[in-house]
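#struct-pred

JT: dropping the chains for the assembly here, can someone run the whole complex?
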Amino acid sequence: MSALTVFDVTKSYGSTPVLTGIDLHVPAGTTTALLGPSGCGKTTLLRIVAGFDDPDSGTVELGGRVVAGDGRGVPARRRGIGFVPQEGGLFPHLSVAANVTFGLPRRQRRDRGRVAGLLALVGLDAALADRSPHQLSGGQQQRVALARALAPEPSLVLLDEPFSSLDASLREETRRAVAEALAATGATAVLVTHDQAEALSTASQVAVLRGGRLVQLADPRTLYRSPQDLDVATFVGEAVVLPADVRDGRAHSEVGVLQLERRTADGPARVLLRPEQLRLTAPAPDLPTALVRTVDFFGHDARVGLELASGRAVSARLEGRDLPEAGDAVGIVVRGAALPFPAEGPDDALVSGPEVRTEDAPADLDATWTTAGR
Amino acid sequence: MDPGAPARPAPRRRRASGGLRELRRSPVTVLLAAAVAALALLPLGYIVRYSADLGWSGITELVLRERVAELLWNTVRLVGGTVVVCAVLGVGAAWLVERCAVPGRRVWHVLLVAPLAVPAFVNSYAWISLLPGLDTYGGALLVVSLSYFPFVYLPAVATFRGLDPALEETARGLGLSTWAVFRRVQLPQLRVAVLGGSLLIALHVLAEFGALAMLRYPTFTTAIYDQYRATFNGPGATALAGVLVLLCLVLLVAEIRLRGRRGYARTGAGAARPVRPVRLGALTGPALLALTGLVGLAVAVPLSSLATWLVRGASTSLDVPELLATTGSTLGLAAVAAAVTTAMALPTGWLAVRRRGPIATLLERSTYLGSAVPGIVIALALVTVSIRAFPWLYQTVPVLLAAYAILFLPRAIVTVRAAVEQSPRLYDDVAASLGASAPDRLRRVTLPLLAPGIGAGAALVFLAVVTELTATLLLAPTGTTTLATAFWSASSALEYGAAAPYAVVMVLLSAPATVLLSRDARRGLTT
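RK: done, full complex below.
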């Protein structure tokens, strides 16, 4: 297993830039998700790493060896990179066993034990070995594709939106099987996705791409709790963004006086809360109140649409029990601290100058969370 | 910064510039495809060149004659009549088989495609040998329509299968009668299929030589042949060929415009739910009678006529060694032609998918254009060109193979192209990432994936060559007979019994292709 380092990679098609100055380091044995909306260049980056495309400038290093850039281009077949395409891309003319062993030397291709072992690795029954790809479900095809990619023991595995073609129930199960197989082999992996939940739950590090640039590279918790800017904040999860006035390190907002995650200068600002930080109680004179507009009940929890006194709409995520009804008046209690961002305005760019970088996020809190998680 | 805004023009630009850049990456393939396109356009180029040599006055003198007007009228009314009759027969039969509760729908489907197994000139021989009075407009219309109506029937069936039954159910729910549903919902959606099939039929009728010569119905093709026989390659034949090519071009332009609108028809994966067929009730009898009548005329009459002549001829003049030798040489010629034509189709078909762009499209379309030229014109052009430029090639097998290639390239290209489309580049990429080298990928991935398509294309060309008459008559080296030419010389001499065995072998050899065609339309139902 090798580390992957992408340095200052740029790529354009004609005069349209697709990737601009991408720097990315994936430590050996970890999984990194490339997260971004469609058209942000994430698949192009994946293809450059795989060797299907060449960067215009910049380098790609795999285990300390330059494989692209600097006038060198190691062809895809010599890079030792496993590739799992979007819908599996199983060879339709070959059986499952022949697909899985495709990348192995000729002598090893007949080894049934090897096939069974590889199938077991991705949680599949060895009885599937003689099936044709079209006899498999979408999730099984994805797992076979992963087994095929892992068989030659690649130094890096690339997964291009591997779960996007699966329906919701299958997706979760397949995602877990893939994550387990990657962990069991200790593979270094890069996963492209536009689904934030998938990225946060699968990867140990998430790279957010936007318009061909890497906007933020962080572990999932940091990304969710301390997004670089409000765009990233709303992209990686539901957000409650409120205007506020910062005085003495506290934000005065429509939902009360809030603690801040990090220090910021006094004056107007915007603060970010997550819907699960809002708690609803019976209305009380000393509490900010809101009117319940909608209740979307999901079973395990619910999203409550609120209208604040100013008419602003926000949502709260509540446990499935004790839900208010639409039309109720409720009081709001905020748990935890809010994250401050510069106020909206034409001088946005000027204000965002001394922006707090991800690394400077409250270190103590981060540490407790990550150690608790490991 | 709105990342969505510049995203729009990007893919278009990528395709345009990438297309050229990618073309440069495969210069040999482009060169080969260009050579194939040049060969395909040779007959057209010959006609244009010859007309230019003649000059305006020369052309008017040769074309503006009473004889040409007569031929034009004969040709146009035959084309028009055939198209109308075939459209009615094809759509009606397709509706009965696909949407009505007639018993034995599968059997009827096969029987309605079966006329394609009988070459038109064999069908015409079968009829005229039974009823010598058919050498009229009505006779020609009957025989040609019975030979060609499956060209409308097949696309109509495919469209019926692709139609979303929900549309018909909705219409019925709105209170429309079965007839009104057919007229207001199904027929408009069938339009593209019927027009496409009709244009194909029109092109075939324009190019038809054998059937019409047998029926002694003079059109451009038969007149060109007579001229050629009388004066070899005189200007008269070429001027007639020019008019004929002009008619074909008009139809081609119509076809291209129609193709542009084909997105109108539903191209999805066919109907998800089975359709509940219309109950005919008391009309079941008449419907069955109509189908029986059609199949009887189109299949039973020619086959029983063939059988009769076979039995009669067997007692007097069946020369088995001769028949076997002719069959052998025909199969050999067809096999070589299939191999050559499919090999020629590979670069064009591959470019059309993997290097999509205006140049690839142009190269592909050139072959379609070239094959729309009637066989008699192609043969005439190759005779003249080979005599003038390469006299040592005249009356040799390579010239004949070139004619077959020009005539049948599209069949091979269409199947090769479809096969390349089914083997997307992704498989190549995955195989590369698994460490396979380029020759390895060709052997282990690309060829296995393309093999069925290449095989199907070769089979289609093979079967077309087995029954090819016109070009073979003009171009076959002296002493080389094929089933079609042997059949032709016997039946032209009115030795119907001697001709029958050759016709039977041709029908038997064509049958597999017909089964394939009927299955193909079936497959549209399930995939």
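JT: nice. Residues 165 and 275 of chain B are 6 Å apart (CA to CA). The two ends of chain B are 44 Å apart (CA to CA).
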